[in-house]
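Here is one chain, start to finish.
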Amino acid sequence: MIAVTAVTAAARVTSVLWGSTVVVAHRRVVMLRCRHAAVILMRSVFVVLVMLAHRKLLARMHPDQPGANG
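Its structure:
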């Protein structure tokens, strides 16, 4: 249950930040042009963090140890 909550929270935070970069892109085009690399870097970092968190949670849910189920 905690794993589902953590993945959901990570997805929501990522979607909010992803949406805020789109708003910045539409409202402040000049600022985005100056910081285009920073926006790409920020998106990449969040995608990697979400993937790592998801992978870690999946590893906890499905242990590869023999006899773990009983």
